[in-house]
Write a structure and sequence with these properties.
The chain is an alpha+beta fold. The protein is built from 7 helices and 5 strands, in the order ααββαβββαααα. 29% of the residues are buried.
Length: 208
């Protein structure tokens, strides 16, 4: 019994961390050796270690981009820090507020939760890419007309979610609007004007 307790006490934090490191390496090797695996490591198609950088190509606001990214970098990281597209906001950085919303292949996603390496070959639209020929998108104009912003920090996320929503339903009722925007948070609590903005934008788009 005493020997058993002695063995437990002799197992240090360093031993634990060393064991975890060995396990991670073993898992990565084993996963790459199993062609039928669907694990995250196998998503790297070039048979390179999971910690290596990779060159990706993607379309951002109508322009083709090619850059080398690290597996740990999120789409939001490269948009803001590498491409200077600061419309998507880093607010909660954990997929809860919607401030970083962009469109990927016309569908809204949280850029803070999407790894850049997985965006290879995708079409990305940020709030900077909505205006055409120096004319604002109708939804952008509606946010200005109806005061659909207060501090404005969350506004780009609301706009991008609304773009995807009204492209599918340009005549929504209030409940549909609330449901569509449920993934976006306004810390100023300006929801009444935001909902009014969406109705105004929908009406404008129906007339167009």
């Amino acid at each position: 019994m005493n020997d058993h307790k002695k063995n437990i006490k002799s197992f240090t934090r360093r031993d634990f961390l060393k064991g975890m490191g060995g396990g991670a390496i073993g898992t990565s090797i084993a996963t790459r050796l199993l062609p039928g695996s669907t694990g995250g490591v196998m998503a790297v198609q070039e048979d390179i270690p999971f910690y290596s950088k990779k060159r990706i190509s993607l379309e951002i606001n109508g322009k083709m981009m090619s850059l080398v990214v690290e597996p740990r970098e999120t789409l939001l990281d490269i948009l803001r820090e590498r491409l200077n597209l600061t419309g998507p906001k880093k607010i909660c950085n954990r997929g809860e507020c919607g401030g970083c919303t962009v469109l990927m292949d016309e569908k809204p996603i949280y850029a803070c939760m999407f790894l850049a390496i997985k965006a290879d070959g995708k079409k990305i639209t940020t709030v900077e890419g909505l205006s055409k020929n120096e004319k604002l998108h109708p939804i952008q104009e509606a946010f200005i007309k109806e005061d659909g912003y207060q501090c404005g920090f969350c506004t780009p996320g609301f706009i991008m979610t609304t773009v995807a929503f009204l492209d599918k339903n340009n005549n929504p009722d209030l409940d549909e609007i609330k449901n569509a925007l449920s993934g976006n948070l306004c810390r100023c609590g300006n929801y009444v004007k935001i909902f009014s903005t969406i109705r105004e934008a929908a009406e404008t788009m129906r007339r167009a």
